[in-house]
Design goal:
By secondary structure, the chain is an alpha/beta fold. The protein has helices at 14-29, 44-50, 68-92, 105-114, 130-135, 164-167, 171-196, 209-216, 221-234, 249-264, 280-289, 304-310, 320-329, 345-354, 369-377, 381-390, 399-411, and strands at 5-10, 33-38, 55-57, 96-101, 119-123, 141-144, 237-242, 269-274, 295-298, 313-316, 333-335, 360-361. The protein contains 17 helices and twelve strands.
């Protein structure tokens, strides 16, 4: 029996490539042959072959900020890329083309249409990108990670495909470390209220959301701040900061000073910061200058799911994959959306969680050491646990399986 074939088109960033890899791996388990189309000078060129998939290349690049000359040449380059993609499709003869984003998707999607090859587009962001908006006009099916109005049916909102180390996680197990800290904190709150307010009445000794809220609201603003600092000091706060694979300059410049501010206030912190390639010396020098201990800096974290689960609080950008990874791990996060995108993709991504109380938000323009310090010192473990708890209903561990289920009919024709 002839193997069914799927051609994956995805490239540029991990946010496009890793969801496609999750889909590819699930299809491979079903004995479906996979090939990939990308560009030779981007991340996919080195990453995809490591997973055992052959990769074809076309010549295409983005036009944003390229200048007038690039725009004049664009029609010819796009036509050339479409011709290259058409040749790849005719050579590989896929039963289906699946795209998850990147400049490469435009020419390959058009080539799929020209060769009458079925096309499925997966939009991973909280706002549909220009390329996918165009492709969705003639694609056989468009699926969405976020609940966007462009989804023609509710079942086309499938969530974000993630690697197995995220999808196999269980929310109850994820939440246990934060729950334990919240329970310990509640006992501290009972003692604090009794001492600060000379409270003589018997207080409930079991941690619940209502019990904590009732006691906490007996405190004034200064007492709340004092209690939060006390709690975060007695149970050391584990912070993970991730700026994406390339790092984030705004995090690299402001996180260490914020941690110094917190420690000056008596809040004890363990920090692990991913700074991106080429930024290690700069951040290490800053950490040394501020005399920070319990502060580890690295260029890239391979076992990111493990590090998420070891943290109490994550500080990060809000790429689509990051948002869903965090939700699948049940970890509270402060999102700092990248502000350069015209359509504010990362802001829309973050608001999927933050609008429902399942995350915290600082806009890029408002982010500095002081704003980060102020937000963290006003947190406690009860609040962190409640944020993580709300993520449970927003996680999508079944997303890859849903997408593969939509793919199957196109392979059974």
């Amino acid at each position: 029996m002839t193997k069914k074939k799927v051609l994956i088109m995805a490239g540029g960033t991990g946010g496009h490539i890793f969801p496609a890899l999750a889909i590819a791996q699930k299809l491979t388990e079903q004995n479906i042959e996979i090939a990939w189309v990308g560009t030779e000078n981007r991340m996919e060129a080195n990453l995809v072959p490591k997973y055992g998939y052959p990769i074809y290349f076309i010549e295409i690049e983005g036009l944003v900020s390229r200048g007038a000359k690039a725009w004049l040449k664009a029609p010819f380059k796009i036509l050339k890329a479409i011709f290259q993609a058409k040749k790849i499709i005719q050579e590989f003869k896929p039963d289906l083309v699946v795209g998850t984003g990147g400049y490469v998707c435009g020419p390959v999607g058009v080539a799929a249409k020209l060769t009458k090859t079925p096309l499925i587009v997966v939009e991973n962001n909280g706002v549909i990108g220009l390329t996918n908006k165009i492709l969705s006009k003639f694609a056989d099916l468009t699926l969405f990670s976020y609940p966007l109005k462009e989804a023609k049916k509710p079942e086309y909102i499938v969530g974000q495909p993630l690697r197995e180390d995220f999808t196999k996680l269980k929310s109850e197990e994820n939440l246990q470390p934060l729950l334990s800290k919240a329970q310990n904190e509640y006992q501290e709150l009972v003692r604090f209220v009794q001492e600060q307010l000379n409270y003589q009445q018997a207080l409930p000794d079991t941690y619940t959301k209502d019990n904590f809220t009732h006691l906490y609201e007996l405190l004034d603003a200064q007492q709340k701040l004092t209690f939060n600092n006390l709690s975060l000091s007695k149970q050391r706060l584990n912070i993970l900061a991730v700026g994406g694979s390339l790092g984030a300059r705004i995090l690299n410049q402001n996180l260490a000073p914020a941690i110094k501010n917190l420690e000056t206030k008596g809040i004890k912190v363990n920090t692990l910061q991913q700074v991106g390639q080429g930024n290690l010396d700069e951040v290490n020098n800053l950490v040394t200058e501020l005399s920070l201990e319990n502060y580890t800096v690295c260029e890239f974290i391979d076992n990111i799911s493990e590090k998420y689960l070891q943290s109490d609080l994550i500080i990060c950008r809000s790429g689509s994959m990051t948002v869903f990874e965090i939700a699948n791990c049940n970890r509270p996060a402060i999102f700092v959306p990248l502000a350069l995108q015209k359509d504010q993709q990362q802001l829309h991504n973050a608001k999927y969680l933050t609008d429902k109380g399942a995350g915290l938000l600082i806009l890029n323009k408002d982010f500095n050491a002081q704003s980060l310090t102020s937000l963290i010192e006003n947190l406690n473990y009860h609040q962190l646990y409640q944020i993580a708890l709300k993520q449970t209903s927003l996680a999508t561990p079944e997303a890859t399986d849903k997408i593969v289920k939509f793919i199957q009919p196109y392979l059974n024709r």
